[in-house]
Amino acid sequence: MKITYYGHSCTLVEHEAKRVIIDPFLSGNPPSGVSPENIEVDAVILTHGHDDHFGDCIDLARRNNCPIIAVYELAVFCSKKGVQADGLNIGGARKYDGFEVKLTSALHSSSVSDGDTWVYAGQPAGVLLTMGGHTFYHAGDTALFSDLRMIGEMNSIACAALPIGDALTMGPQDALLAAQWLRTPRVIPVHYNTFPGIEQDGQDFCNRLKQSGIEGYPLTSGQSLEI
């Protein structure tokens, strides 16, 4: 499994010929360093509907002729934009060609902008993505909540992407505890330093993780981690 970070909360996960992108906030996020026109994927996964996660999902799904996988209400919204969409719900899993997706709870909010209005986009979610025998957990935007311990107990998580920005998600201190509860050996900090109000020191967070026996990877856009 290879995980490439494209800024904010966007990760591209691949194994052999399969490629899946999560929360593709690219063209509206200059630090991503990549144009959606250069992304080839087999599926797009959304954790929730906010613009900094919804991003370029419609364009990517249309150009790659691939599905958007999201919680049911958000998938319906995407299908009305003329693209393939597959709706799951919290706790539900589905196997695809070469990978499996399961949605978990996340403690946040979710809506999607549609012109001048905001549309309810169902519950926010975390994602358990399994490819090539490894499971990657993308927590989405979330606060710390006790069921993270259960997620760690029920799954062998090779790597987790955890938000550390604070203000809109959990901050570094809560993310340290989340990493321990998840029982994961590797963590990629996400959702920080993209815009004012969520500035954090990713390297310091990873140094603190190491004190708990967890390897942290403060990736910059375009950098990858191979498992």
UniProtKB/TrEMBL annotation:
<dbReference type="InterPro" id="IPR036866">
    <property type="entry name" value="RibonucZ/Hydroxyglut_hydro"/>
</dbReference>
<dbReference type="InterPro" id="IPR050114">
    <property type="entry name" value="UPF0173_UPF0282_UlaG_hydrolase"/>
</dbReference>
<dbReference type="InterPro" id="IPR001279">
    <property type="entry name" value="Metallo-B-lactamas"/>
</dbReference>
<comment type="function">
    <text>Counteracts the endogenous Pycsar antiviral defense system. Phosphodiesterase that enables metal-dependent hydrolysis of host cyclic nucleotide Pycsar defense signals such as cCMP and cUMP.</text>
</comment>
<keyword id="KW-0378">Hydrolase</keyword>
<protein>
    <recommendedName>
        <fullName>UPF0173 metal-dependent hydrolase E6C60_3392</fullName>
    </recommendedName>
</protein>
<feature type="domain" description="Metallo-beta-lactamase">
    <location>
        <begin position="7"/>
        <end position="191"/>
    </location>
</feature>
<dbReference type="Pfam" id="PF12706">
    <property type="entry name" value="Lactamase_B_2"/>
</dbReference>
<dbReference type="GO" id="GO:0016787">
    <property type="term" value="F:hydrolase activity"/>
</dbReference>
<comment type="similarity">
    <text>Belongs to the UPF0173 family.</text>
</comment>
<dbReference type="InterPro" id="IPR022877">
    <property type="entry name" value="UPF0173"/>
</dbReference>
